Every structure is written in C-alpha cells, then in structure tokens.
Automatic annotation (TrEMBL):
Residues 8-17 have a biased composition (Basic and acidic residues). It comes from Roseovarius aquimarinus. The lineage of its organism: Bacteria, Pseudomonadati, Pseudomonadota, Alphaproteobacteria, Rhodobacterales. It comes from the Bacteria. This is EAL domain-containing protein. InterPro entries: Cyclic-di-GMP_PDE-like, EAL_dom, EAL_sf. PROSITE patterns: EAL. Residues 51-301 form the EAL domain.
Length: 303
C-alpha cells in the first residue's frame, strides 16, 4: 500500500512538473490536440472553424451565382387542395452541387456582410418570380439588419416600382428574434412599406421573447407559430396548451395564424380544430426548387 501511495505521489509530481514546463493544458498539449495556441477551448475553436468554412462555402456560391429559392406551400386549414401562398426559402449549392438549406448556414452568416447579400438575392429572386407569375403570392425571409442595408432597400423599392401588382402579393417574413433586435426600426419600416400594400409575417413566434407591448405596436398581418410547438402536438398536451395560447394572441391582434412544421395528419386535424388559419410543413409539401407552377399541369394557388 505504501509503495502504491509513493508511486502515485511520484506520478503527480511529474505531472505538476510537466505542466510548469508548458505541458498539461499548455501550449504543448494544445498543439498535440491540433488546436492552435491561444484557443484554450477546443469546442469554441471547432465551432469557429466550422463557421469560417460555412461562410466560405456561401461566399463561393454567391460568387458563382449558385443561389436559388425553394418554394413550400402554405395551405388553408381544412382545405389542403388549395394554396394560400408559397414561402420562398433561400438555398445555395456547395462545391459538389448539393443543395444546402438555409438552416445549415444562416446562423454563421446572419451578422455578416454575406448575410445581407443573401437577403438581397432572396428578395431579388422573389420579386422576379412574382413579376413573372401574376397569380402568385409569395413570402420571402429577411433579417431586421437588412432594413438599414442600402442595396436591400434599393432592391425592394425598385421591385415595387417596376410592377404595381407585386406589393399586394409580397409577404416579408421577419423572425421574432430578429425583430426584437431593433423593434423601433422594424415598426417604422413596416409602417412605411405596408402603405404600399406589402404584408408582414412574424416568423418563429414563441421561440424568442417578444414584448407584448411591441407585438401590439408591430404591423404584422401573419403570425407563424414556431415548429417546436407543432411537431407531435396531437399527442402533447403541454404543446396543445401553449399553441392554443399563441393562437389566441394572434387572433386578439387580428393576425392570420400559421402553424409551421406540420408533418402528420393527426397534428393537422388538431390544429384545424383549435382554429389555426393555415398550415405549412412536409405533410403538405416539401420545399422544391421546381415549383408546381412551372409544370404543364400547374395548379396556381391564390388566396
């Protein structure tokens, strides 16, 4: 026993000596772990490296014009044979030609210049699509940060001026978290643009921390309830209560309510029963870069 204790003390002394000389978690160990010196948190370094790679991938896609919209239908509850409007979701192609959805890169670029450019491209493509298809209604995602971005504002103004019918068929979606970054700027922008006929949707409602005071002051026409409350709702009593409450808030402020991420028939039936106005999700159609209105037997949905 004493020999074992002596050996243990000797090993600890050697470890302490090693750390004092730059071993342990110092420069040598980090270099051995392939983490550059100065990055003392390997997880943070890995996340930062991944984000840099993601931004480079998106920048390459923008540079080579490998950016497109995928379109997903939003249907009136209980009337899945009709389409109220489509949401245009930004996509990029990576170096191998794979279509990359926004959820894979938007977090890495949201606060960067690349994020603003992606917003511009999404809006440009959405406005062009609306101009080409007169019976179409379309929603396009935007960040509140883009309101102060000159190119984005020029794109919006030019598109609305070029075709008088576009404004009343365009819906701009702003996420709850984005809107709350600069609520006063958002309300002023919405007040101005809504006078031209553009509608606004508050996206991912319930995922953030919207002040009820700002919700009252916002000019949102549509309230999209976040998918975390919707998936499996038919079997989840907690989400049933929460979604019913969120829908009640929407109705109180005279907003059309939309449930996101509807993937099952029983969930769709429950949401219809509690009075949700529209439904969106894979149960009714996946986002597609080849929308139905481009096919010979196209069914052009109009609300």
């Amino acid at each position: 026993m004493r020999r074992n204790l002596g050996k243990l003390k000797s090993e600890r002394a050697m470890q302490d000596h090693h750390k004092a000389k730059g071993g342990g978690l110092g420069k040598g160990a980090l270099k051995w772990a392939d983490v550059p010196y100065g990055h003392h948190d390997p997880l943070s370094y890995a996340i930062a490296a991944r984000d840099r790679s993601t931004v480079e991938m998106v920048n390459d896609a923008v540079r080579h014009k490998q950016v497109m919209l995928a379109f997903q239908p939003v249907v009136p509850a209980g009337q899945s044979d009709r389409v109220a409007f489509y949401e245009g979701l930004i996509r990029v192609l990576d170096a191998t030609g794979r279509i990359i959805p926004a959820r894979e890169f938007i977090g890495a670029i949201e606060t960067t210049e690349t994020g603003r450019i992606i917003d511009c491209l999404a809006l440009e493509k959405g406005l062009r699509t609306l101009s080409m298809h007169g019976g179409l209604r379309l929603s396009i995602n935007m960040s509140a940060r883009s309101i102060g971005y000159a190119r984005w504002m020029r794109t919006l103004t030019k598109g609305l001026d070029a075709d008088p019918t576009v404004a009343e068929r365009l819906i701009l979606e702003i996420t709850e978290s984005s809107a709350m970054l600069v609520p006063e700027l958002v309300t002023g922008f919405m007040d101005e643009i809504s006078q031209r006929g553009v509608s606004f949707a508050l996206d991912d409602f319930g995922a953030g921390f919207t002040s009820m005071r700002y919700l009252r002051d916002f000019y949102f026409d549509i309230l999209k309830i976040d998918g975390q409350f919707i998936r499996g709702i038919a079997q989840d009593t907690d989400n049933q209560v929460l979604t019913t409450a969120l829908a009640t808030i929407g109705r109180q402020f005279d907003m059309v309510t939309i449930a996101e991420s509807v993937e099952r028939a029983d969930d769709a039936a429950f949401l219809t029963a509690i009075g949700i106005d529209c439904l969106q999700g894979y149960f009714f159609g996946a986002p597609s870069v080849k929308p139905v209105w481009l096919t010979p037997d196209a069914r052009r949905g109009a609300a």
